């Protein structure tokens, strides 16, 4: 019995052993395409026939596929049933086009919520305290003493 294919789009920086473990369940393939047009042609050529699942490593994959819009969804092999999108949202995938093709789409919500919140708090404090002025003074070699150059930041306590 022929194994289904799983297509990896983009780089795989982590979980390489997990990806390799999938070889027992599926033939693992990568596109040869380097551009969206080449990827569309590759889909239409039959080379990717039998691909059941796509592991989309956005944003790296966008350089090859571009957005998963209706044109791209229609070009995918009819065998595709799953798109595993490794980002928090669906900004790059036309869900209606996937639904029309009975393609299920997953994403990774909440994965970066805490890191995003931390960054937001850092940026708020950095803006309030004027951290960038000090950073730029150090980089430009204009920091001349104990006090950073004007304008000084504000104290959150008032």
Automatic annotation (TrEMBL):
SUPFAM superfamilies: Formate/glycerate dehydrogenase catalytic domain-like (SSF52283). Keywords: Oxidoreductase. GO terms for molecular function: glyoxylate reductase (NADPH) activity; hydroxypyruvate reductase [NAD(P)H] activity; NAD binding. Residues 63-120 form the D-isomer specific 2-hydroxyacid dehydrogenase catalytic domain. It comes from the Eukaryota. GO terms for cellular component: cytosol. PANTHER family: 2-HYDROXYACID DEHYDROGENASE-RELATED, HYPOTHETICAL D-ISOMER SPECIFIC 2-HYDROXYACID DEHYDROGENASE (EUROFUNG). This is D-3-phosphoglycerate dehydrogenase. It comes from Fusarium albosuccineum.
